[in-house]
Amino acid sequence: MNLLFIGDIFGRPARNAVKKLLPDLVRKEKIDLVVANGENLSAGIGMTEKNYLEMIKGGIDYFTSGNHIWDKRDFVPVLADKKTKVLRPANYPDAVPGRGLAEIEVLGRKIVLVNLLGQVFIGPNLKSPFETLENIIKDHPDQTIIVDFHAEATSEKCALFKHFDGRVAAIIGTHTHVQTNDLQISDKKTAFISDVGMVGVSDSVIGADKNLIVEGFLTQMPIRVEVPRGEVIFNAVIIETGLDNTVKSVKLVNERVG
Prior knowledge:
6-stranded mixed beta sheet, 13 strands, globular
């Protein structure tokens, strides 16, 4: 099975880039499942139902998210619908709307997609992602588990990978929007990357208008997040898994769309 995991999609230019690139990429790489982090889908912060449906129509099969999934309050009831193909982090309290994992049938196999939120430098104060993933593994033995770990600290991402090495198929880091140079397959056949990157305007600060972000650092005043125009960078990773639930190969995707 070939899984394409797309980094955080940041606003309208990124959505347009996905719609432009995805069909050819799926055909060329023989992709069986397309997953993307969608917490920045709408104007760079949160997700709307309209944009969610736009991207589902554009070829994305399932979304993960993170701390910004609550920023469009109208989407919370949609997130609570079991038919919605969007995850929120699994280490939120059980009473919170939405789900933290999904069992997805692909080529007659069951893929367990998991979303977790880190605890370091990011907030809010959630349950341990380590404890949460431990319980998920116990509930889904001998299955292909793919984890989106939405976290700020590289050390926390690496620690989760080391602790669960050989027990899950892949741990894919998101949130910091900069594609890292540590994509690997361990000796125990678990794939890992600290951050898969983003789909967003390249001449920006992690997708947002660079001038506004710089102004915020210079003045320490509250700023608004706006999505600029320009060339878009498309970051993703392709993970090939075998019938034994381990990873056979990994490949970075780093494209640019004018």
